[in-house]
Design brief:
The complex is a heterodimer of chains A (459) and B (189).
Chain A (H helix, E strand, L loop, with lengths): L4 H9 E4 L5 E4 L2 E5 L3 H11 L9 E4 L21 H14 L2 E3 L9 H7 L8 E4 L13 E4 L2 H10 L1 E4 L4 E7 L8 H12 L8 E5 L1 H5 L2 H9 L8 E3 L4 H7 L8 H11 L12 E6 L6 E3 L7 E3 L10 H7 L14 E4 L7 H11 L9 E4 L4 H9 L2 H8 L2 E2 L20 E4 L14 E4 L2 H10 L5 H5 L1
Parallel strand pairs in A: 3-4, 3-6, 4-5, 6-7, 9-10, 9-12, 10-11, 15-16, 15-18, 16-17, 18-19
Antiparallel strand pairs in A: 1-2, 2-8, 13-14
Helix pairs in contact in A: 2-3, 2-5, 6-8, 12-14, 12-15
Chain B lengths: L5 E9 L6 H4 L19 H4 L22 E4 L11 H9 L3 E4 L4 H9 L3 E4 L2 H5 L4 E5 L4 E2 L2 E2 L4 H9 L3 H6 L2 H14 L5
Parallel strand pairs in B: 1-2, 2-3, 3-4
Antiparallel strand pairs in B: 1-5, 5-6, 6-7
The chains are: A alpha/beta (459), B alpha/beta (189).
Chain lengths: 459, 189
Amino acid sequence: MNQTLFDKLWAQHRVKTLDGGEDLIAIDRVFLHERTGSVALESIVESGRTPLRPEHVFATMDHIVSNKAGRGGDDARTPGGDVFITATREAAQKTGINLIDVLDADQGIVHVISPELGIAQPGLTLVCPDSHTCSQGALGALAWGIGSTDAEHAIVTGCLRVKKPPQMRITVNGAFGAGVTAKDLALHIIARFGAAGAKRCAVEYAGDVVRNFSIEERLTLCNMAVEFAAFTAIVAPDEITFDYLKGKRFAPKNDVWEQAVASWNTLKTDRGAAFDFDYVVHAQDVKPTVTWGTSPAQAVAIDGRVPLGAETKALDYMNIEAGTKLSELAIGGAFIGSCTNARLSDLRAAADVIKGKTVAKGVSAICVPGSMAVRRAAEAEGLDAIFISAGFEWGAAGCAFCFYAGGETFAPGTRVISSTNRNFEGRQGPGVRTHLASPAVVAASAIAGRIVAPKEILK
Amino acid sequence: MMPFSTHTGTAAPMLRDNIDTDQIIPSREMKSVTKTGLGDGMFAGQRYLNDRVENPDFVLNQEIYRGATILLSGKNFGCGSSREHAVWALKEYGFRAVIAESFGEIFYNNCVRNGILCVQMEAEFIAARDLIVTIDLHMQTVDDVSFKIPRGDKAMLIGGLDPIAMTLQHEDDIAAHIMRDKTTRPWVY
């Protein structure tokens, strides 16, 4: 029988089918962060249970750590946030799991460091109490976001009870026009299908465009699958994946490397395998895309207008009118960061736009690299100097201004262009108005002081 | 976990789409490393004006909906962040069920793990509910109209079961699976 990539991964990890119709799925790796993982670890300690394989559980600190250069090991960016950091550290020590602590060289956003360290690998099941875990499907892993109770479940039992989701394939063919990025593709797809459009499907991204994407571009694309209600997203592993992983800290070594690659080469959808939904996206239809509203699905091409008949509640919150051109909107803030777009290629794309220019007056511009490794690599290329001399703040790794948890943020009412994943009401702070875009568009807009495409700045 | 069998209660309408978990429990309301102390922060962004004064326009602050135990909503309720704190907050406030057109996947699972029933219904049906709604999980009905629910979720909710304890009953099968897997995928271990 012809199987999809997802069918193969599911079958490989299915321990048994339970009476209730769910499958008991073996979980290879669990990742935790201090915001939602701490409570799972504490609950395990309190219950007297123990991790089945503590060596396969990883925790880091990313959500509420301070993003100031020179931060201390307990410093939080939110008032009282240090308790999450210290509790995670203590519980990690008690349970014997791997901890990548605030001041460790490998610290960063979980979905940035997991691939970077070779923890995410093709064919692994990987879960984390964080909705953007779907990012890691970019490496051909079956990775999905769960709650804290399920994290506890996976750590203690090595399994989760899951009903096999339906499947969708989105094939992206053709070639992008100038200035179009993986982020634009993600926003284009969500706008086309709607915020609930993936209907709990495991989504396989396929086609020439995805095949030619780097791992970092695939991570950006898969990252936003949860924003249109996918169970997860996945890209079949290939030479690009293997080249990326080879030599990474937790990647298979020596003789098992060849064995692993041989196995990973079988992880692809068979010709003729059936999907519940099968769609094609033409790359030439994708333009640099920016959100105008309070859902990632409320997005249009950067040279477009806020749609007529747009949702009133979203218009009111964003303080805009239907029919307004996006390029007429002045901004007060610009943020480059998050698990969506804070990898080295993202920082390079933004630096290319701002090099030798200055952030517009009145715009608060911030760049927070996704990991300390990204930060060091960027500094080795001199990107930090480009950001700083343009007037950007240059932060220490973490989720930072992607979400508000109390503490420092943009002033209420500020219009912010952001390389992040969510533009929900209040996401970046009370009354803050978020427009999602690619790092290059964020960079260009920071320079212009209004929403613009990079080509407007570079000409 | 509190078992769910039948429930009759006040149903509060929040008939919008895409009510995300940031709205249900803003991150700034997650102040400690526990599953409790969250009810007060539920919907804090809409429920309160400045200085924690109740916003009279917010549905749950209106007299007839006070003490509501059932929430009515649109598509994709509970989308966004995986934070289980959203479910712990709803539970602590007193909600037993959410009836919506569809749900965020992680939120749905978190509800099952905490004894909150999520019922998927059509928009017209949801909009037509009276103030008091009756849910019978055994019969799988809301006000005598039937709904679907996966068998495993139903059993978990009716029994008020601990899923970890249930899974640990399959320890031998899990160990056998890992033994087999170690020979086919040795690099994983």
